[in-house]
Amino acid sequence: MTLLKETIASGAAPQTIGRVAVPVDDEAARLEALRRTGLLDSEPEPAFDDLVSWACDHFRVPIALMSLLDADRQWFKARRGLAVQETPRDVAFCDFTIRQSLPMVVEDAARDPRFQDNPLVLGEPYIRFYAGAPIINRQGLALGSVCLIDTAPRSFGMVDRMVLAQLTVTALAAIERR
Predict the structure, then answer these.
(1) Predicted confidence (pLDDT) at residue 11 exceeds the cutoff of 70
(2) Which of 11, 54, 101, 170 is deepest in the core (most CB within 10 A)?
(3) Please, which pLDDT band fits residue 66 given cuts at 50, 70 and 90?
(4) In this structure, is residue 116 part of a structural domain?
């Protein structure tokens, strides 16, 4: 299992810690790296579909996604439990996720000031619980995330966070094999 640590507060250059990188804060480079993968608007692929199906089953959540964030939208390369293919980036929980190296967990979105007025909380899919981990490439750029969603609040322990982070390593390996 990958060992995760927080970013060093000294402002040192981004670095790889084990197999998990600290995201580089360069949106233009991130978008170019995402474009180069050829994933956006591509057809479904079993490796990614299987990953989100496994996540739903393992974590017992109704929704799991592999989300890619371009300049204006969050597009779902793989999804289970959600009918829509994309959402605007400005309402995407995953936009917060890709700005950090560790999984982001929102145990009750209705009580979190960042999300309580979000249309995805107030309306379909009625997000209450969210857990997402960034998919960070070898250059330290966050391409997207693997995330879990539930319509009821819930807790998410350290082992769960580690398993979710490991799924992003699996997702990156599938991206690199394409």
Answers:
(1) no
(2) 101
(3) very high
(4) yes
- What residues form DSSP beta bridges with 21? 16
Q: Quick check: is 3 in a domain?
A: no
Which distant-in-sequence residues (6+ apart) come within 8 Å of 41 by Cβ? Answer: 75
Domain CATH code at residue 104: 3.30.450.40
Complete DSSP assignment for 14-59 = P-EETTEEPPP--HHHHHHHHHHHT-TTPPP-HHHHHHHHHHHHHH
CB 76 within 8 A of CB 82: yes
Give the range of the structural domain holding residue 130, as residue numbers without chain letter. Answer: 16-177
Amino acid present at 175? I
Q: How many domains does the chain have?
A: 1
73 in any annotated domain = yes
> pTM for the complete prediction?
0.86
- At residue 22 the predicted structure's pLDDT band, cuts being 50, 70 and 90, is low
